[in-house]
């Protein structure tokens, strides 16, 4: 299992979701993709997409207005 991070600070959807989808293509099942954002709409959009596409996702507001997401690749 590997952990990857992509930079999405200051970006609004759909750019963070496009970056996440692209990175997931190169990851193995069980790998984790870590994202942090200061935009609640970006966080929510990624969470909704991940759940709809059967990925595991954990979302936590780690500071006022800062969301930490951990998306686990569960399938190809």
From TrEMBL:
Record InterPro entries: TusA-like (IPR001455), TusA-like_sf (IPR036868)
UniProt domain UPF0033: residue ranges: 6-30
Gene3D superfamilies referenced in this protein's UniProt entry, alphabetically: TusA-like domain (3.30.110.40)
Protein name: UPF0033 domain-containing protein
Native source organism of the sequence: Desulfosporosinus metallidurans
